[in-house]
Amino acid sequence: MTASYSSSRSRLSLQPHLLDIVKPEYPRFSDAEYNRRHQLLEAMMERHDCDYLLVITDHRAGNAVQWATAWPGTNEAYLIFKRNEPLTMYVEWFNHVPLATKIARGVQVQWGEHRGIEKTIEVLKARGARRVGLIGPLVPGKYLRLAQQFEMISLEADYVRARMIKSEEEIDWLKIGAAFSDAGVQALFDQIQVGMDERELGALVDSAYLSHGGTSMIRYIGVTDMQAPHLYVPPQYPSSRKVKNTDVVFCEISAFWWDYAGQVLRTFYVQQEPTALYQKLQATAQSVFEAILQQVRHGATMQSLLQASALIEAEGFTTCDDLIHGFGGGYFQPILGSHSRPAGPIPSLCLEENMTIVVQPNVTTREEAIKGCGSRAGVQVGELIRVTRTGFERLHQLPLQLGVARR
Question: In CATH, which superfamily holds the domain spanning 31-164?
Answer without folding.
Answer: Creatinase/prolidase N-terminal domain (3.40.350.10)
